[in-house]
Design goal:
Length: about 270
């Protein structure tokens, strides 16, 4: 705590000297002032963590002085030093938050030392709370900004997916997507039309249920992970290509068209 400073304000030289004597070996710097105005002048020039003020002083009583300390240096911990005759005013000041601790005259030396230590610990706790709150505020701001960015990215991605879905639905050819188990996970409207299926009924079907004639060829293609083939099945022509995504996903894309009568097949 050597970087801390404590200010003692009392109009009596003997009281100031007595406090200096009690606190001379404590691990902080001790400053003194003979009046409230002089104490305010010290605070203008010095960084002070704890102020101990006598209550009964000419020109400015201790509570008035500490009220100004609270207004201008709210982080400084404030202690009032007074006799029991001023107890009611001191308690009122404590209730209003103008004073953190109350020490009686005459004081106990060990109690005085302990009180100052507690005040400095309180000051450090308040400073840590301020730092933590500022850190949380910055993190919340960063999170808010990131959420906005993610929202924009999601909005852009969603718009792109919607456009891709619209394009897929408008294609004059049927498109089927099969996962690595041979289940239909994607089917546009033209695929439903060419396979005489109501809209949406191809999804989640096993390959053999919707295209039993090409199931074996497509399964073989999925196992090799590449290549394509074309077969003619009545009025329809099927083209298929296996894919292996970098994330490990495997599947088959099947294109279905109405076959030209003169078009050949490798089946």
């Amino acid at each position: 705590m050597s970087e801390h400073t404590v200010l003692c304000v009392d109009d009596e030289t003997g009281i100031r000297n007595a406090i200096k004597r009690v606190l001379r070996n404590e691990p902080y710097r001790l400053l003194t002032a003979a009046s409230g105005p002089e104490g305010l002048a010290v605070l203008d020039e010095e960084s002070v963590q704890v102020v101990i003020s006598d209550q009964r002083m000419p020109s400015m009583i201790g509570i008035e002085f500490l009220q100004q300390v609270k207004e201008n240096w709210p982080d400084t911990v404030r202690v009032i030093l007074s006799g029991y005759a001023d107890l009611a005013a001191v308690v009122d000041s404590i209730n209003k938050g103008e004073v953190y601790r109350f020490l009686t005259k005459p004081w106990n030396d060990e109690e005085l030392k302990a009180t100052v230590r507690q005040c400095l610990e309180h000051y450090e706790l308040l400073r840590e709370n301020v730092s933590l709150n500022e850190k949380i505020r910055r993190q919340n701001q960063e999170l808010k900004s990131r959420n906005i960015e993610l929202g924009q990215e999601v909005s852009s991605t969603t718009a792109g997916l919607r456009l891709a879905q619209l394009v897929l639905e408008e294609l004059p050819i049927g498109i089927l997507g099969l996962d690595d188990t041979g289940t239909v996970v994607l089917a546009n409207q033209q695929a439903h039309n060419l396979l005489d299926r109501p809209a949406g009924q191809l999804l989640d079907l096993a390959l053999g249920e919707c295209m039993p004639d090409v199931e074996e060829r497509l399964e073989a293609l999925a196992e090799t992970g590449g290549g394509s083939f074309r077969i003619a099945d009545g009025r329809l022509l099927f083209s298929a290509s296996a894919f292996l995504h970098e994330n490990g996903a495997r599947g088959v894309i099947v294109v279905i068209q109405e076959a030209d009568h003169g078009q050949g097949t490798d089946r």
